[in-house]
Sequence to fold (159 residues):
Amino acid sequence: MSKISLKGVIDMHVHSNPDLRKRAYDDIELMEAGIRVGARGIVIKTHQGTTMDRAYLCNRHNEIVHSGDNDFTMFGSITLNQVVGGINPVAAETALKLGAKVVWLPTQSARGHREKMGQSLDGCVEVTRDGKVLPEVKTVLQLVKDYGAVLGTGHISPG
Fold:
């Protein structure tokens, strides 16, 4: 069996420490692992808000420690759960202005997630009402487009 190359790969969804759940790597360890395997980049994600500031610090660390010897970039994101006010265009735009490259729709606060996990639906973050996309979701979608970012659907339900 031949060895698989990860050269140039960008992993779009990795959870790292710090987090409320124990993860395999912290941000720096994850960055170093990505560099070792020749990855082009990693998008770090948290259910607790934003990671673009953490990605910035990893990239500065990479510059200082590795002096530009690789083309690896850590990318940050925002997850629109209750912790950032749900579908919050101000939080989304602030994250994008600070360098976030992915905006995730609700995950642990999404109705689809809570239904699947048998959790209370009180306070879940909705993206539709009466079969129609909410105005604040449309605003976030426009922001994603305007900033050339990526939209992740999170844990929303298909209906």
